[in-house]
Amino acid sequence: MNNQNLIIFNFRSLYIILKELEEHLDFHILESLSIQNLDDKTKNLKNYLIITQKKMKDINNQFILNNIPIRISILMEKINIQLLKLQFNEKSEFRIAQYKIDLNSRELIAEKNILKLTEKETNIIIYLSQSNNPVSVDQLQFDVWGYRSKLETHTVETHIYRLRKKILKKFNDKNFISSHKNGYKIN
User: 64-81: per-residue pLDDT in tens?
Assistant: First the structure.
């Protein structure tokens, strides 16, 4: 069994059926009978889908099951599709401070502002954000560009300069990527 969780909200009969089948399923079955209990359960879960009969306001990852009766094989197919969509969306999003990067569309997002990024800009931001220390130009050349020699090139500096300029113009953030004597760092 993996770490996917299926929360059945206020739907006791479905919970009983799926709980019986749980050992044959690829997800853990949980039940919730109140919004408070649902909030408590989802607070510590990362990968979950909530099955409910009615749409709930301000609740994420819902799958509304209102066309019943339904064949169990069709229900399992729909649940698996929903879980795959959630996994895809989760893996396509990368958070850095107040920003979010959508890896699929290559966009840097803060509040309602969206900045289109090139593939290289996206790779630079992700690489820098995963380092606790400043990253040298040589290290960026090696890991992001794949340069294997000590060629004298200003490719990294040029990309960083242009990326900073775009971020400043769109988000008015002049400190997103900072320069240090050892290289660059995302703040």
Answer: 998 888 898 889 888 888
